[in-house]
C-alpha cells in the first residue's frame, strides 16, 4: 500500500484517541518494538498521559497523532526536550502492521523533524531503537540519522537481552538532506495549537 502524503497529518492527541492508544500500549508486539511499558496499562493511565500533554505545553514533550485520511494510525513525539541544549529524543510508532512500510513513518518523522528544527529551533534530535528492529533502522538510515553507538544488552525482551542502537540527527544535516520533500509537507502541521 502506497500512502498519499497529502492525506497524512499530524494533529494534537485528544481524548477521543485514548481507547485506541490504550489498546496499542497493551499490544505486546507493538510494545516490544517500541520498548514501551512492560506491563498492562489502564485506560485511565493513558487518559492521564493525554491530559498531561496539554499541560506540559512543550516544556519537555510534544506528541502528535499520526492520521491518514483522518484515521489514527500511530504516534510521533519529541520527548526529553532540553531547551538549554536545544535537543530532544524522537519516539515513533505506526501501530498496525498492515500500515507499516507504506511511508507513514517516513512522512510523520519528516514532519516532526522539520517542526523540531525549524519550528522549535532545536539543534539535535536523537533516538534509541532495538538493534533487532530492522524496519525502524532502515527508516532512520533513509532519513540520514547517524548511528552514534550501541548500548550492549541494554533492554530485556522475551527472556533475552537486546542491544539498543543510539542515533542522532543535527539541524544542519537535516536541512541539507531532505529540505524540499519535508518542507512541502509543513503546511499539514499547524504549530499554533502547540
| Model regions low in confidence, pLDDT < 50 over at least 5 residues | 184-194
- What's the CATH first level? Alpha Beta
What strand order characterises the main sheet? 1-2-3-4-5-7-6
How many separate domains make up the residues?
1
Largest sheet: 7 strands, mixed
Report how far apart the termini are: 31 Å
Helix content: 25-40%
Give the overall form: globular
Global structural class: alpha+beta
Level-2 CATH architecture = 3-Layer(aba) Sandwich
Summarize the helix and strand pattern as letters: EHHHEEEHEHEEHH
Q: Which fold name is given in CATH as the topology? A: Aminopeptidase
How does this model look, in words?
- It is a single chain.
- Helix content is 34%, strand content 32%.
- With 194 residues, the protein is an alpha+beta fold.
- The protein has a single domain (5-185), classed as Aminopeptidase (3-Layer(aba) Sandwich).
- A seven-stranded mixed beta sheet has the order 1-2-3-4-5-7-6, with helices on both faces.
- Helix 1 (18-25) crosses helix 3 (43-56).
Features:
single chain; 194 residues; alpha+beta; Aminopeptidase; 7 helices; 7 strands
Give the helices and strands, then pairings.
Layout: E1 8-12, H1 18-25, H2 28-34, H3 43-56, E2 61-68, E3 71-82, E4 87-94, H4 104-119, E5 124-130, H5 134-142, E6 146-157, E7 160-170, H6 171-177, H7 179-183
Parallel strand pairs: 4-5
Antiparallel strand pairs: 1-2, 2-3, 3-4, 5-7, 6-7
Helix pairs in contact: 1-3
Amino acid at each position: 500500500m502506497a500512502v498519499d502524503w497529502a492525506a497524512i497529518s499530524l494533529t494534537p492527541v485528544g481524548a477521543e484517541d485514548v481507547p485506541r492508544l490504550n489498546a496499542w500500549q497493551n499490544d505486546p508486539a507493538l510494545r516490544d518494538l517500541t520498548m514501551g511499558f512492560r506491563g498492562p496499562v489502564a485506560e485511565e493511565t493513558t487518559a492521564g498521559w493525554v491530559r498531561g500533554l496539554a499541560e506540559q505545553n512543550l516544556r519537555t514533550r510534544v506528541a502528535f497523532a499520526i492520521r491518514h485520511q483522518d484515521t489514527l494510525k500511530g504516534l510521533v513525539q519529541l520527548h526529553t526536550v532540553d531547551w538549554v541544549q536545544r535537543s530532544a529524543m524522537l519516539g515513533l510508532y505506526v501501530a498496525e502492521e498492515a500500515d507499516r512500510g507504506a511511508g507513514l513513518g517516513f512522512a510523520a518523522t519528516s514532519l516532526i523533524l522539520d517542526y523540531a528544527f525549524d519550528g522549535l529551533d532545536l539543534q539535535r534530535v536523537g533516538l534509541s531503537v532495538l538493534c533487532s528492529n530492522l524496519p525502524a533502522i532502515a527508516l532512520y538510515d533513509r532519513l540520514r540519522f547517524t548511528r552514534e553507538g550501541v548500548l550492549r544488552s541494554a533492554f530485556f525482551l522475551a527472556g533475552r537481552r537486546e542491544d539498543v542502537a543510539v542515533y542522532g540527527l543535527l539541524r544542519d544535516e537535516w536541512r541539507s538532506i531532505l529540505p524540499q520533500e519535508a518542507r512541502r509537507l509543513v503546511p499539514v502541521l499547524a504549530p499554533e495549537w502547540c
